[in-house]
Amino acid sequence: MAIPIATLFAIGAYDLVLFRGLSRALAGPVVLIAIAATLEELVFRCVLFAVLEESWGTSFALVVQALLFALQHLGNMDRAGTYDVVVMLSTVTLCGLLWAGVFIMTRNLWAAAANHAAWNLTILLSGIPLSGNDDWRAISPLASRYVGPDWLTGGMFGPESSHLAIATTTVAVVVLLRAARRRARWSSLSNTSGNWAIPPRALS
User: Distance of CA 79 to CAs 42, 70, 132, 163, 195, Å?
Assistant: First the structure.
């Protein structure tokens, strides 16, 4: 996420209005982001993904958990048009695949939660909407505004819906999942009877 955000600032799609610096007011949101990321990874990757993978294989579990993860974000788009909702669902599905990829590679809840929290914190510190939420922009170290078109900036949902972020996330997902297959961290429907190449270590 840092790469597309930095690029959007560099090309002028985001404009830095003011540098406020770090403040103590950020402590609460940072803790909340860490807790929320951990809970979401626990539910969607550590529990839902793991249960589905055990019964139906990694590919099926990947798709289902990612789609359900995206659907739970619909509440952030209550004022959005159809295009914005479709783009949001696409990009958050990619996020679900990304963090599942981290989980598959590590079989570790904390690795996926740390990646998820770092993603959200990067957006918060940049002063732009986080998953459609504007509430914390007033205490961000950077006061920023959109200059470019919605397809590039991400519009109301923020940089996660930027086509640039979608492209970079897609690359990351492909790299992670290909690496997981090469390292035999993949379970197919035919070998879901407990014959894991890499033993699950979800809470280690």
Answer: 29, 17, 10, 20, 47
In the chain, the percentage of residues whose pLDDT exceeds 70 is 92
> Which tokens go with 94?
């990619």
The structure tokens listed for 173 are 């997902």
What tokens were used for 177?
């999942």
Question: Are the beta carbons of 185 and 191 closer than 8 angstroms?
Answer: no
Beta bridge partners of 1: none
Query: Beta-carbon neighbour count of residue 47 at 10 Å?
Result: 14
More confident residue, 204 or 52: 52
- Positive or negative, the CA dihedral 107, 109, 112, 114 is negative
Distance separating alpha carbons of residues 159 and 45, to the nearest angstrom: 23
Q: Is the dihedral of CA 148, 169, 67, 112 positive or negative?
A: negative
In our burial notation (b when 16+ CB lie closer than 10 A, e otherwise), range 68-88 reads: bbbeebeebbeebeeebbebb
pLDDT above 90 as % of the chain: 77
Residue 58 phi/psi, 5-degree rounding, is -65, -45
Its pTM stands at 0.88
Indicate the SS3 state at residue 12: coil
For the ranges 74-78, 93-97, 111-115, the lowest mean pLDDT is seen at 74-78
Residue 85, both tokens:
């909702």
DSSP E strands, the chain = 14-19, 142-146
- How many angstroms from the chain centroid is the CA of residue 114? 11
